């Protein structure tokens, strides 16, 4: 039986094959998007949904944010909020380097008193590349360092990611992405898809 990760990756590659040609252009940093991810924390699965966006204040700076929900399969879920600021730098006609600082807050809800009202604060500094692989396919690689506080217990670690975004039309795209976090006692793996409308 196919698992969720296999299905998500297959959907991403199918979209890439089916997408029509598109002329390369400057990357947009003003957009709205929504997505889903399958998250695994030390063999404990969760489903994540989120919505958010980014606003370019000028050519050199943007602000972004999102809200979401992380639902574990054991009577535990987290409501999440993230805000951040970043700056893109053009490396070539086909590549941007994006430096960003993001803060996220998550609070748990559970009928189990031991798991209810857990606060998780995370500050992440990251660098991401955006590169036109073809005229309508964008590739991403990212690396960052995150500092996390869970109810007073703090830790730090690396966050790595990669993604593939397919532009169906110049303003609308779909993407598949994978990431791994090495923060805290447990590694966190995520495989996701999202849709984005750029302006």
UniProtKB/TrEMBL annotation:
The lineage's top-level taxon is: Bacteria
Signal peptide location: 1-24
Would the keyword Signal turn up in this protein's UniProt record?
yes
List UniProt keywords, sorted A-Z.
Signal
- What is this protein's record name? Outer membrane protein beta-barrel domain-containing protein
Which species does this protein come from? Zhongshania aquimaris
The organism's lineage is: Bacteria, Pseudomonadati, Pseudomonadota, Gammaproteobacteria, Cellvibrionales
